């Protein structure tokens, strides 16, 4: 039975970064706002050395909380980057700081258990994390009932449960995303393998019969050279004809293999736009596009998206396709004055469009940005 990965391991599988980025610190630090409760309790109820001690424990706990994410950033998110025993010791240290806070912050110190539950859900195996959260939840509920002067309002137990549940939900969502990505990669590899098999079958079908006949005729010509030179010459001529025909068939097969695919270009365009952090609004089907228009439209997608990624500075790119027209639009800086429509790629695209009897329109999109459109026919 496979072990459920921790959130650290899931994040490591999801991306190539060694640890959380700069904004990860901000996202983690925002939640320190809730430590204001024990901080205020200590500041208003304690005096002298006890106040200093209590505030110091709150500050140390906040440093420990942020230090966990700094630890992740330094050592990385790999499966073995942070051994499990070190994670447990770290959580034990945070729990010890919580206990040290109790004499000065009282019931408000239970707020720290929410942070410990969240980090447990991030760092530990799900079964261990759930067990630890259950212990924290039970401890909070029992202490509110047993410690004199503490009120049993259920808020701390609910906060621990809610915080752990939120992190668990994020954990499961990332795990499903990883599984979906792995499935897509497997399907892509299978598609590549199937295409290789198809091409190998095509070459076998093209060359198998031709080479067999060429071999037989060459052997026959060799035997007839002395006995019947005229017959041998005819056989050699047939061998030459068969070889030329086989070569033409191979060239045709290779040309078809290298032909652009509109569906494939849309997939590549989406990947390129995502890599450039440009929101992609692309069609999900090309069924309405006639077969004779698809290669030209594929060239439009390639050239248009290349220009969007390289030159536009856009935040969004939209591709619209009908049976006889394709448009590539972005919300970037628009065409460059005096040369925005004369790049080498667009020149080549115009030549292809002319050969297909299509027209090319290049200019500013409605409102702002750049528009490239190709229309086949009137």
TrEMBL record:
<keyword id="KW-0808">Transferase</keyword>
<keyword id="KW-0472">Membrane</keyword>
<dbReference type="InterPro" id="IPR036890">
    <property type="entry name" value="HATPase_C_sf"/>
</dbReference>
<dbReference type="GO" id="GO:0046983">
    <property type="term" value="F:protein dimerization activity"/>
</dbReference>
<feature type="transmembrane region" description="Helical">
    <location>
        <begin position="52"/>
        <end position="72"/>
    </location>
</feature>
<dbReference type="InterPro" id="IPR050482">
    <property type="entry name" value="Sensor_HK_TwoCompSys"/>
</dbReference>
<feature type="transmembrane region" description="Helical">
    <location>
        <begin position="84"/>
        <end position="102"/>
    </location>
</feature>
<dbReference type="GO" id="GO:0000155">
    <property type="term" value="F:phosphorelay sensor kinase activity"/>
</dbReference>
<dbReference type="GO" id="GO:0016020">
    <property type="term" value="C:membrane"/>
</dbReference>
<keyword id="KW-1133">Transmembrane helix</keyword>
<keyword id="KW-0812">Transmembrane</keyword>
<keyword id="KW-0902">Two-component regulatory system</keyword>
<keyword id="KW-0418">Kinase</keyword>
<feature type="transmembrane region" description="Helical">
    <location>
        <begin position="114"/>
        <end position="136"/>
    </location>
</feature>
<feature type="transmembrane region" description="Helical">
    <location>
        <begin position="156"/>
        <end position="174"/>
    </location>
</feature>
<dbReference type="InterPro" id="IPR011712">
    <property type="entry name" value="Sig_transdc_His_kin_sub3_dim/P"/>
</dbReference>
<dbReference type="Pfam" id="PF07730">
    <property type="entry name" value="HisKA_3"/>
</dbReference>
<feature type="domain" description="Signal transduction histidine kinase subgroup 3 dimerisation and phosphoacceptor">
    <location>
        <begin position="195"/>
        <end position="259"/>
    </location>
</feature>
<protein>
    <submittedName>
        <fullName>Sensor histidine kinase</fullName>
    </submittedName>
</protein>
